[in-house]
Amino acid sequence: METAWDCAGALLRPLTFMGSQTKKVLLAPLKHPARPFRVSSHDRSSRRGLMAGSLGELLSKTLDALMITSRLVTLVLEEDGTVVDTEEFFQTLGDNTHFMALEKGQKWTPGGNCVPARQPPRRSGIVRVTLDLYKLNPRDVIGCLNVKATMYGMYSVSYDIRCMGLKALLRSLLRVLSHAAQVTGQFLVYAGTYMLQVLANTEEQVVAGSRCRQGVTSG
Question: Domain coordinates of the chain in residue numbers?
Answer without folding.
Answer: 35-103, 126-164, 167-207
